[in-house]
């Protein structure tokens, strides 16, 4: 039924559904889309907010920053021109890695745009396992988190930032 409805009908409907399920995080740097269905049609992307993510943004454990435009040594250059020096960078790129402009100067980019991991540079979800993607991503995420913690000598919790 939804496929037959025009965006002018679906956008308000999706806004109501979003307001009922996702709290307003605009004060924390994640504004609500004005036309969510139109955005989906234009970009092919759907923001997915996990309950843990929402809670961490609300509590200030995750800081939303402008998009990342470049990596420059230990600095991360943001879309507004500012620079930050995080302990770790996690780039959630979706189904198309597209990491060449961001990390191509830091590591080899192999077949299908998949970068080669190395010390202090980790990649998640870059392979398609037979055992199931989400299952393997969960396992890989835990291992990467341990590796990053070891590399940082982490003994305390760090604040997290997410680029929009």
Record the SSE blueprint.
Layout (H helix, E strand, L loop, with lengths): L6 H15 L14 H8 L7 H8 L3 E4 L2 E5 L2 E4 L4 E2 L15 H4 L29 H20 L7 E4 L1
Parallel strand pairs: 1-5
Antiparallel strand pairs: 2-3, 3-4
In summary, what is this structure?
This protein is 34% helix and 12% strand.
Provide a descriptive summary of the structure in words.
This protein has 164 residues and is α+β, with helices and mostly antiparallel strands. The protein folds into two domains: 1-60, no CATH class; 87-164, no CATH class. It is 34% helix and 12% strand. The chain contains five helices and five strands; from the N terminus they run H-H-H-E-E-E-E-H-H-E. The strands form two sheets. It has a three-stranded antiparallel sheet. The chain has a two-stranded parallel sheet with strand order 1-5. The longest helix has 20 residues, at 133-152. The chain is globular, with a radius of gyration of 18 Å.
Keywords:
164 residues; 2 domains; single chain; two-stranded parallel ribbon; 3-stranded antiparallel beta sheet; 5 strands; alpha+beta
Order of secondary-structure elements: HHHEEEEHHE
Oligomer: single chain
Helix content: 25-40%
> Mean of residue pLDDT?
78
Structural class: alpha+beta
Instruction: Give the low-confidence spans.
Output: none
| Radius of gyration using CA atoms only | 18 Å
Total number of β-strand segments?
5
Q: Taking strands numbered 1, 2, ... along the chain, how are they ordered across the largest sheet?
A: 2-3-4
Main sheet overview = 3 strands, antiparallel
Distance between the termini: 32 Å
Shape: globular
Provide a count of the helices.
5
What is the strand content? 5-15%
Number of domains: 2
């Amino acid at each position: 039924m939804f496929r037959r409805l025009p965006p002018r009908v679906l956008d308000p409907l999706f806004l109501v559904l979003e307001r009922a399920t996702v709290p307003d995080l605009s004060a924390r740097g994640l504004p609500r889309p004005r036309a969510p269905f139109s955005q989906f049609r234009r970009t092919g992307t759907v923001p997915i907010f996990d309950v843990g993510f929402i809670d961490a943004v609300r509590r200030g454990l995750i800081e939303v920053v402008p998009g990342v435009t470049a990596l420059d040594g230990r600095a991360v250059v943001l879309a507004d021109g500012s620079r930050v020096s995080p302990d770790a960078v996690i780039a959630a790129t979706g189904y198309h890695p597209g990491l060449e402009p961001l990390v191509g100067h830091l590591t080899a980019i192999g077949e299908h745009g998949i970068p080669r991991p190395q010390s202090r540079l980790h990649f998640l979800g870059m392979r398609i396992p037979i055992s199931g993607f989400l299952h393997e991503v969960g396992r890989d995420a835990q291992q990467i988190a341990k590796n990053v913690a070891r590399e940082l000598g982490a003994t305390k919790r760090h604040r997290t930032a997410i680029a929009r």
